[in-house]
Amino acid sequence: MKPFVVSYNLEDMNINFQGNKVVRRYRDIKNIFLNKDEELEKENPVIYEVFEAPVPENEGDLMFLITILYPGKVKGEFFMTKGHYHTVENTGEVYMGLRGKGLILCQTKEGDFEAVPIEPNKVVYIPPFWAHRSVNISDEPLVFFAVYPAHAGHDYGTIEKTGFLKRVFSKDGEVSFVENK
Ligand code: PA5
Ligand code: NI
Asked: Is 25 touching ligand 1 by the criterion CB < 6 Å?
């Protein structure tokens, strides 16, 4: 393939990354939240969108993308992504905050857990073997750029079974961590 350039504009939120686009609505991912919400069930809003660049999934290539995670809560639990390990576990990822404020929940299969902040002017490093999930703790869209080895793949199944060790709720206007049982 040849070098290429894609563009984005945060002012009008126009992301023109030319690749695969993933849209996840409430009903697609409602099982990741602790509680159900009747209103959201009816409205079925978009929770997040991923705009990928047209990079082949080959070893040696670098996939890059922008995620927009909208603000909102499900019975107090902040909107979040599904979260995943990489299928090729020995692959890391870099997230760069562009807009809004969030937390990246990270954990290993050995039971380590970290929640690291993401926002403009911050860059997060997710090492190999760490699962990652994004949580929007602001009242505007959380927008971040990500880049990872294009052959890494997404293992959603493990997190679907185990969940993350902690959930993030809004409680009395504060961010509150709740142990996931
Ligand atoms: O590769 C990544 O880690 C991100 O691009 C995520 O895929 C994206 O933010 C959406 O999250 P998830 O894949 O957990 O649904
Ligand atoms: Ni990833």
From this structure: no
* Residue to probe by mutation, ligand 1, list 23, 50, 87, most atoms within 8 Å of CB: 50
- Rounded-to-10 torsion of CA 129, 103, 54, 23: 110
Determine the Cα–Cα distance for residues 120 and 127; give it in Å rounded to an integer.
20
The tens-digit pLDDT sequence of the chain (181 residues) is 999 999 999 999 999 999 999 999 999 999 999 999 999 999 999 999 999 999 999 999 999 999 999 999 999 999 999 999 999 999 999 999 999 999 999 999 999 999 999 999 999 999 999 999 999 999 999 999 999 999 999 999 999 999 999 999 999 999 999 999 8
pTM: 0.98
